[in-house]
Design brief:
Length: 186
């Protein structure tokens, strides 16, 4: 009986996973398509945290950035965006370093962070406000340094500390508890 309950639960979970990834795929396709259409009206696209995480999990299975093992997005009120991630710093190429604290950060680490996403008029900036590694609070500047080193290894290189252009005519991203709303169009 327990085996049947487990199988039913697994099938339902896979169905919800597929539904979530289908909705995000639909929204992404619509945003990209509309960005090439000069007559496309402004739109709002809403995605739930569950839909987004299902899509992220699928993307990580298909194309995983170096070192990133797991990622769970947390959508919080007042444009707060957090994440729980497991990252292998050696594989990501950001382990070690000149400071004593950086030299201790090697191998697989559980990282939790939260910050504030400010966006308007097609530009955004993410300000990290709180970080924990393996449950211990760490200085935000340390994580910014790690992200900077990781971003420099990407193609093209990214500096996560600087404001950035939003792609595909995205004008604004609003975050509330469990939901993100993406505003597109001019």
């Amino acid at each position: 009986m327990k085996r049947i309950a487990w199988i039913v639960t697994a099938v339902l979970a896979l169905g919800l996973l597929a539904a979530g990834t289908n909705e995000v795929d639909r929204v992404v396709t619509e945003i990209v398509t509309d960005s090439y259409d000069t007559d496309a009206p402004p739109k709002q696209h809403r995605l739930s945290e569950d839909e987004l995480n299902a899509w992220v999990a699928l993307q990580l299975r298909e194309q995983r950035p170096p070192g990133l093992q797991e990622l769970l997005v947390k959508l919080r009120p007042d444009d707060r965006l957090g994440a729980l991630m497991t990252i292998d710093l050696d594989e990501a190429g950001v382990s070690g370093g000149s400071s004593w604290l950086m030299s201790m950060l090697t191998g697989r680490q559980d990282v939790e962070f939260e910050g504030h996403l400010q966006s308007s008029e097609g530009r955004a900036r993410y300000q990290i406000e709180r970080v924990r590694i393996n449950g211990y609070p760490v200085p935000v500047s340390l994580v910014e340094s790690l992200l900077s080193r990781w971003g420099q290894g990407m193609e093209p290189p990214i500096d996560f500390r600087e404001p950035f252009e939003l792609p595909y005519q995205i004008q604004q991203i609003r975050i509330d508890t469990g939901v993100v709303t993406i505003h597109t169009g001019s």
